[in-house]
User: Which sequence fits this backbone?
């Protein structure tokens, strides 16, 4: 079947479900027992999820999915325990942010920066996800900031003390942390209220399928072969007998040809 011949899947996750539960729904529909994904999306997030099927899960670490693009909405003047609107409000501010103030601080978030992950996150401490510590009331874990990179940050809209932003960034960049830190840099609070992932590596939303199409037996979109998803060199051995007989061959020698996907 086509879905097995092309072992990578780009699919749009709906709001209100964890990435793992969403993957389990796909497994249930397709009866494919083994799947894995790169890049967790929070339950409130929508957008692209990159999935590997069967033995291709071994290749996930080679997939070029480091570049991520998001569209987010940040509400200023509110702080929650989760840094997004799903958490309880713990602080409020009457300060009204202006567009010019936002424009002035945006450049300081572009490039390589240090970012403190949210307390409620999938980042691990001593082998356990941070959100599990947080749910148990342990919120003061000695977890330091991580190095991330924001390639582009663009203001797409600003109204009623809220900003719509387009973010292009490296893997591991938390949009909730960005919302929180933007608020702090403006002398107020910031909370993530909307998030959608629109790009993973070279793939965009137009390349993705939906769970509804798959449920209806439509596998014509969103499935990709190894050569389309993985950027690794292929070594073509011209004298395979040497390799079979255990003879060492030089990768840069004249008896092989290196190709790239």
Assistant:
């Amino acid at each position: 079947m086509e879905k097995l011949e092309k072992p990578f899947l780009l699919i749009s996750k709906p709001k209100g479900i964890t990435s793992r539960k969403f993957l389990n729904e796909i497994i249930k529909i397709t009866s494919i027992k083994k799947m894995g994904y790169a890049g967790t999306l929070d339950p409130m997030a929508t957008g692209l999820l990159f999935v590997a099927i069967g033995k291709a899960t071994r290749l996930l670490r080679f997939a070029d999915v480091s570049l991520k693009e998001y569209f987010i909405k940040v509400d200023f003047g509110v702080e929650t325990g989760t840094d997004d609107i799903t958490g309880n409000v713990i602080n409020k501010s009457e300060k009204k942010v202006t567009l010019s103030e936002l424009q002035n601080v945006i450049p300081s978030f572009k490039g390589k920066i240090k970012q403190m992950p949210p307390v409620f996150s999938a980042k691990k401490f001593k082998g356990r996800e941070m959100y599990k510590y947080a749910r148990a009331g342990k919120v003061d874990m000695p977890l330091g900031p991580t190095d991330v990179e924001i390639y582009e940050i663009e203001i797409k809209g600003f109204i009623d003390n809220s900003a719509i932003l387009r973010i292009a960034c490296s893997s591991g960049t938390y949009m909730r942390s960005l919302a929180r830190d933007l608020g702090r840099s403006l002398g107020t609070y910031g909370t993530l209220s909307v998030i959608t992932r629109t790009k993973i590596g070279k793939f965009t939303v137009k390349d993705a399928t939906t769970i509804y199409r798959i449920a209806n037996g439509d596998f014509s979109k969103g499935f990709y072969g190894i050569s389309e998803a993985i950027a690794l060199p292929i070594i073509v051995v011209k004298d395979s007998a040497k390799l079979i007989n255990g003879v060492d061959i030089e990768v840069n020698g004249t008896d092989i040809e290196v190709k790239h996907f």
Q: What stands out?
A: DSSP finds eight helices and 16 strands in the chain. Residues 234-261 form one domain. The longest helix spans residues 19-30.
